[in-house]
Amino acid sequence: MSQNGGWIVTASRDCRVTREELAVLAREVGAVVAPRLERPLASVLAEFGARFALVVQKRGLVASDGRDSVFFHPGMAHVRIKQMAAGETDRMVEAMGLRPGMTVLDCTLGLGSDAVVAAHAVGPEGRVTGLEAVGPLAVLVRRGLAGYPGRLGAAMGRVDVVAADHGAVLPRLPAGSYDVVYFDPMFRRPVFHSPGIAPLRGLALGAPLARESVVEALRVARFRVVLKERRGSPEFGRLGFTVVEGGRYSLVAFGKREAGA
Ligand SMILES: C[S@@+](CC[C@H](N)C(=O)[O-])C[C@H]1O[C@@H](n2cnc3c(N)ncnc32)[C@H](O)[C@@H]1O
After folding, report:
1. Ligand 1, residues 4, 68, 205, 239: which to mutate, most atoms within 8 A of Cβ?
2. Angle between helix 113-122 and helix 75-85 axes, rounded to 10 deg
3. How do residues 65-83 score in pLDDT, each as one tens digit?
């Protein structure tokens, strides 16, 4: 179900991970274990005929194609939660209409920033499930979300990471099983200076959001389906979303569709 093809699991030379730990990780990812890195990752990838690697380094897990690397970082989620705690509104939270106790299905988890902010907004009585089609990214994020302290850590602990393609999951979910269903697919036209997403581009699933997935999401959502895209994107019209006003100077926009409308 998840898109694991072409991945290996390995470790940097100076990292003390055991072979058994690597084997556990490889099973979780559904990848093969390659020997510890004694030479450039690109040549190991070539030898294994793999495109990507999940590398255990001293500072944690890194997903890499031998050129670009992605590691988990709470990044903007930390800043946004701080701003919300200081009384500022968050555009995504507003677009979703989140209140304490609500449930959210994030269909495009990525590095999990939006999911963590949503988990903060819905509070301890709420729940967030994040679907990520690229299995090793899901593992990177699942492990990354563990072990942070404070308000941020509490929100991270409420995100349940599932390595799966939403195209396969949504049709199997009962009607009305989440309050809000959220999509943030890779933008059709990338925002190149987006520091959190740029390195993800080579590793992530970049297919356009399917109309059928939006139809299923409208069945699964009790309240609303929200789409994030580049401001002015034709995707909003193609998929039937009404753009939420606000953030006139922002490069991104949110669109919503009410369930049952
Ligand atoms: C733009 S990123 C999401 C960023 C995320 N909102 C965040 O705050 O970090 C899109 C992610 O969705 C994943 N994705 C794309 N299509 C998917 C699908 N059909 N099912 C599950 N995940 C998908 C991509 O692999 C990528 O990691």
Report:
1. 205
2. 30
3. 888 889 998 889 999 999 9
